[in-house]
Specification:
Blueprint lengths: L2 E12 L38 H13 L3 E2 L2 E2 L2 E4 L9 E4 L6 E7 L5 E11 L3 E5 L2 E5 L6 E7 L6 H18 L11 E11 L9 E6 L2 H20 L7 E6 L4 E7 L9 E2 L6 E2 L2 H9 L5 H10 L5 H8 L2 H11 L5 H14 L4 H6 L6 H12 L5 H14 L3 H4 L10 H14 L1 H8 L6 H11 L6 H12 L1
Parallel strand pairs: 12-13
Antiparallel strand pairs: 1-10, 1-11, 2-6, 3-16, 4-5, 4-15, 6-7, 7-10, 8-9, 11-12, 13-14
Bound molecules: adenosine-5'-diphosphate (ADP), magnesium ion and zinc ion.
The site of zinc ion has 8 residues, from loops.
């Protein structure tokens, strides 16, 4: 029998507000353990949380960018559980009245992955296991998170991967998070079940916790899909449980039986007031949503005439897209800038995260200046390319590398002078030519081209050389 994968993702994204969700401690990543803390975020008795309004704004922007409805009224709830990473023994989260709901992200195959909800909550501290001991660092405690929960709409590992990448890109475009999975600012819980192809009922699911890289996520999904299929094929049943993935053995193993909402004894947090959001607030935030990657892609293809594959490479990184737009502004054909970026510039950048940072020594204005010189035929492509290489290498500006005398073609007198030189320095070629070897002329033309840095007119040079030799 053929089986189909069914998956829904719960993604935690750390918001990049300056301060934590209920106190004014910094959200900066790292730092000496337990130095980014105060009595509020380590949950000392007698302290009172106060909601950071920026968190609400960031979360609303995330909701707007993923087609969600924004709740005008919502509230914070306590999710009770006892674990050393959470000294209060409850996490402040949102239960039955999340801030955003009913959104979706559309995949490239046209399928919409529905988003059930986006809620805000506080992050927990981090446990560090070292030489048999366990330490706890509360720096991360109280860092604001949004949790984005999809419906079980994902039908393949590729769709899961594309969904996560798209979500990551959208969050980065709107600037609510850097979504660095390796630093934990984006983490996914993956729910998986399988069912016979064609069936309309869902199977029992398992949940793999805390995937911190897309590669591991796809590996874990492959493993878990096969495990469930094997189990069913051999007459067994999938048990609903929470799993952890071990990236060394590439297997999943049970963490705990599945808890349900009752286990958490959710109740409204009595320390925090109702969150109300006005229409005009939502309208204002709507205005801050920039052009999103899908819209950009469409515009680059439709309006700027960039081939779709190239356009996809440009929009994949926000800074690259911004650079491209600045560099191509007012130039004859935006494809010129696109080609320089995807070709020569990308070749100097090592990996994905470096592309994300896009720290290069050439500014968009500099590249634009170079392209304008090409457009106006002041320089030729060869010179533009070698100049860009030098700019990337040295950080020098166009004006420092190309002088007036490099621009324009070589005039008749200068060409003639170089041709004379070419004849004098290549007596063998001259002899060969005179003996009927037509091709020998090319060596002399080559000399002229090389010594004029490509600026001489090759046809004119050939005629002049023939004239001199005659
Ligand atoms: P809970 O409240 O127990 O966490 P939810 O209904 O909120 O359960 O679902 C949690 C996640 O699990 C959601 O992303 C949802 O899409 C996914 N999910 C629910 N049922 C299934 C299923 N049968 N197979 C795969 N994923 C599922
Ligand atoms: Mg859940
Ligand atoms: Zn604090």
């Amino acid at each position: 029998m053929k089986y189909e994968l069914v998956s829904g993702l719960e993604t935690h994204v750390e918001l990049s507000t300056n301060t934590k969700i209920f106190c004014s401690c910094t959200t900066a990543f790292g730092g000496e353990p337990n130095t980014h803390c105060c009595p509020v975020c380590i949950g000392l008795p007698g302290t009172l949380p106060k909601l950071n309004r920026e968190v609400v704004k960031y979360a609303i922007r995330a909701g707007l960018a993923t087609n969600c409805e924004i709740s005008r009224i919502s509230k914070m709830d306590r999710k009770n559980y006892c674990y050393p990473d959470l000294p209060k023994a409850y996490q402040i989260s949102q239960y039955d009245m999340p801030l955003c709901k009913n959104g979706y992200i559309e995949l490239s195959n046209g399928r919409k992955i529905r988003i059930n909800r986006i809620h805000i909550e506080e992050d927990a501290g981090k446990l560090i296991h070292q030489r048999g001991d366990t330490y706890v660092d509360y720096n991360r405690g109280g860092v604001p998170l949004i949790e984005i929960v999809t419906e079980p709409d994902i039908r393949s590992i590729d769709e899961a991967k594309e969904y996560v990448e798209k979500l990551q890109l959208i969050m980065r475009y709107i600037g609510v998070s850097d979504c660095k999975m390796q630093e934990g600012s984006m983490r996914c819980d993956v729910n998986i079940s399988v069912r016979p192809k064609g069936s309309s009922e869902f199977g029992t699911r398992t949940e793999i916790k805390n995937m911190n890289s897309i590669t591991f996520m796809t590996k874990a999904m492959e493993y878990e899909f096969d495990r469930q299929v094997d189990l069913i094929e051999s007459g067994g049943e999938v048990v609903q449980e929470t799993l952890r993935y071990d990236d060394v053995t590439n297997t999943t193993s049970s963490m705990r039986g599945k808890e349900d909402a009752n286990d958490y004894r959710y109740f409204r947090d009595p320390d925090l007031v109702t969150i109300s959001v006005t229409d005009s607030e939502v309208e204002e935030l709507e205005k801050t949503i920039p052009e999103l990657p899908d819209e950009k892609l469409e515009r680059y293809v439709e309006e700027l005439g960039i081939p779709e594959n190239d356009a996809a490479l440009l929009v994949k990184y926000r800074k690259v897209a911004e650079f491209f737009e600045k560099a191509s502004e007012g130039t004859a054909n935006p494809r010129t800038a696109a080609n320089f970026i995807i070709g020569q510039i990308f070749r100097t950048i090592e990996n994905e995260s470096a592309k994300e940072e896009f720290n290069i020594s050439v500014s968009a204005e500099d590249l634009r200046e170079l392209i304008l010189m090409l457009d106006s035929k002041k320089i030729r492509m060869n010179l533009a390319k070698s100049t860009l290489d030098k700019m990337l290498e040295t950080g020098k500006k166009v004006s420092e590398l190309i002088s007036e005398k490099d621009m324009g073609g070589l005039d008749e007198a200068a060409t003639r002078k170089l041709c004379q030189e070419a004849v004098e320095k290549n007596p063998n070629a001259v002899a060969d030519y005179k003996n009927g070897k037509e091709k020998a002329i090319k060596a002399m033309v080559g000399y002229v081209m090389k010594n004029s840095r490509g600026k001489a007119d090759a046809v004119a040079a050939e005629n002049i050389i023939k004239e001199i030799i005659k």
